[in-house]
Amino acid sequence: MGKVWLASSSPRRRELLEQVGIPFEVVTSTYEETNQCYGSPVELVERQAEGKAMAASVDGILQPVIGADTIVAYGNRVLGKPEDEENARRMLHLLSGKVHSVITGVCIRYGQCIHTFHCETKVHFYILSDDDIDAYITTGEPMDKAGAYGIQGKGALFVERIEGSYTNVVGLPVEMVARKLRNISEDKGMNE
Ligand SMILES: Cc1cn([C@H]2C[C@H](O)[C@@H](COP(=O)(O)OP(=O)(O)OP(=O)(O)O)O2)c(=O)[nH]c1=O
After folding, report:
1. What share of the chain is helix, strand, coil (3-state, %, to 5)?
2. For 4-191, CATH number?
């Protein structure tokens, strides 16, 4: 199948593909994200993942193009990346001592075919003090991450346990992606 094209500016998604040895190139996507939830959180992330994959500047290529979108869902609230430090503080207060979901939508566009799926991980947070939250915000780590924390960084100290995929929380469920890519390439082989 050769290299996949990753329509993402997220360093985490690159690192995850590198970690498991999936060869890739990064391409830019002109898709404008929204956290307006017109349907369920799953519909939102899947639609945004499709938008990112479809808006990647790779017309006519024969390799798979991957777009992904990660959000935090708590009750009926959808948390994307915080707009500012105050917003990050509010998000972390909301998640303190509670269980939330991290949902990543993934779209793999391959020729005329679009394969869209999602992965959900439940994350249990310890109770966080105001001091914990303030100290964390000064690290700058929350600002480019959905839900205002990074499980792969200092945010790990907030997490009591997770149920489901760890890589999904970091931004790309690579175990699902690898399996889907293998299925896609096997189907393609059979159809040739
Ligand atoms: C919950 C959580 C999220 N995140 C990150 C993963 C995603 O990069 C980010 C959510 O933002 P996204 O909009 O999914 O992705 P992005 O804007 O970083 O990259 P692109 O749209 O170009 O693909 O939050 C972590 O790194 N660690 C975590 O623990």
Report:
1. 40, 25, 30
2. 3.90.950.10
